[in-house]
Amino acid sequence: MDIYKLSLIIFLSISMQNAFAKIYKWVDEEGNVQFSDRAPPSLRENFNFKKNQTPDVKREQKISKPVLGEKRSINNKPFSENIILSIRMLLDGKKFLELNEALHAHQTVAEKNIYAEDALFTAYNAFEIKSRSYESIFNEWVNTTPDNYQPYLARARFYYRLAWEARGGKWASETKKDKLEIMKTYFSKSAEDIVQALKLYEKSMIAYSLLIGIYNSIGKGNETELIVNKAIKFNSATFHVRRQYLRALTPRWGGSYEKMKLFVIDSMHYVNSNSKLKLLEGYIYLDLANLQQIIKKYSVAGEYYNKALEFGLNHKILKERGENSYRRENYKDALKDLNRAIQLYTEDADYYYWRSKTYRKLKEYANATTDIERAYELDPYDKYILSQRNWLASKMTYLAYQLSKKQKPTEAIEKYDVALNLDPTNADLHYRKARALIESNKHNQALDEIEQAIQINSDDINYYLLVDYILAKSRSWDKIISHWDNFIERNPNVSRAYVERGGSYYRKGDMKSAVRNAKIAADMGNIEGIEAYEKFKHFQ
């Protein structure tokens, strides 16, 4: 049986009204009583979209950008709990019992306080990991606590992310068939876990939101109304499930703006329970804006983003408007929106990625680096984040090198430190920093740095030459010889190494060993080795 159909069986025995089947009653202009699943004209008078028709923003009243400090009635308080990293730390440590407790605690709080739903969804966002290497950990978690719903939901979230990663971001018509098949495979696995989670805990808004996303993504959006109806039976004021369903109603997924608006109108019946529902209408204009951005009509997109923000400060829309300003090369405007988005929500890697790109354009490389590190911390497998991280590491290395050339070692060291934070396993960066430290007469620190370079790459003779130079100042011949022993053991055909080891034996006063090393280098054709051997061979 199709797993997508299977996931709906749990709903089929429940008689639910259609998502748009709220029955409206009113008296028309001729005095006749009317009943309809469409809202009366009085509720639709400000919404004149025909099916799939977009509103003409040029005919609307000019919209100014909301003032960032403006007070709003929407409950959209700054969010900075570091939930994702806390949850992922438990996952990495395989602390499955603690994970179950933490996730259920979020679930319990969200059921008591609708505004805690943000934290609940954020907790499960921790499982948006773009690496198949985590599959074994999720499997172990499920097998360890098979009677708990949490591991099934977590693995479902994981598979849901992998499905989208496999598919890519192109339109379906531009996506290869094999990618779509892989996507469907992961969606099937996700749906199977959701079914099991709902059997164990049927009130999970996470589960319903994921199911809506899956059905919508595989072209079965017309079946999502059954899912949303089931969800709102348990939680009529849920913002996250309603927002997910609203996405399924967009024209690109087979819906229309009229359907979106009617669903928003119906959602407003619960706004007293959750003021965040006022933000929903903004998503209609967000979709319009994103469509304009796709065809590079950034100015028109900006007007729609402004309109979307009329319904309340929404960190998602602020981020999107910031991204749009970035594409228009209005980097200062982009920074303002991205700053505000991050103030409101601190748990999305993409927000920091775009602010890092913006800082990069503004040549504020230190800030760009701080942001990309935060993005990497939240999403260490994202290829765009990794690319930005590598670019910044290269840029900081270049700046440090230029400062070294200008004989400004202290400033160069600061830049190397930033680069090493971004790329700590780059042996050459440690080497370059060690040279700058030597220029600052910090030989002990330089030795520590070059030792790290050797741990990363034990085969670069330049690293050993620098160790030789540093230790020679303290006449530590045995330590130098030990380093050359290690290098030669790994690289026995490098003649220069025998010359250098022979020189250390010479300075130590061990002439036999010095001559023996010179002879080996001479036999390998090394000119310095030949000269040394001819000069000291009588000490044999």
Comma- or semicolon-separated keywords:
540 residues, mainly alpha, Serine Threonine Protein Phosphatase 5, Tetratricopeptide repeat
Topology diagram in text:
Elements: H1 3-12, E1 24-27, E2 33-36, H2 41-44, H3 83-92, H4 96-112, H5 117-125, H6 135-144, H7 150-167, H8 177-200, H9 205-217, H10 224-234, H11 239-248, H12 257-267, H13 282-294, H14 298-308, H15 315-327, H16 331-344, H17 349-361, H18 365-378, H19 383-405, H20 409-422, H21 427-439, H22 443-456, H23 461-472, H24 477-490, H25 495-508, H26 511-523, H27 527-536
Antiparallel strand pairs: 1-2
Helix pairs in contact: 1-8, 4-5, 6-7, 7-8, 7-9, 8-9, 9-10, 9-11, 10-11, 13-14, 14-15, 15-16, 16-17, 17-18, 17-19, 18-19, 19-20, 20-21, 21-22, 22-23, 23-24, 24-25, 25-26, 26-27
From the coordinates shown, what is the CATH architecture of the domain at 472-540? Alpha Horseshoe
The CATH homologous superfamily of the domain at 472-540 is termed: Tetratricopeptide repeat domain
* Overall strand count: 2
Task: Give the class from helix and strand content and strand pairing.
Answer: mainly alpha
Percent range for helical residues?
55-70%
* Oligomer type: single chain
Average the pLDDT over all residues and give the rounded result.
86
Report the CATH topology name of the domain at 472-540: Serine Threonine Protein Phosphatase 5, Tetratricopeptide repeat
Integer-rounded radius of gyration: 32 Å
Characterize the largest beta sheet: strand count, sense, and whether it forms a barrel. 2 strands, antiparallel
Instruction: Give the overall silhouette.
Output: elongated
**Strand fraction:** under 5%
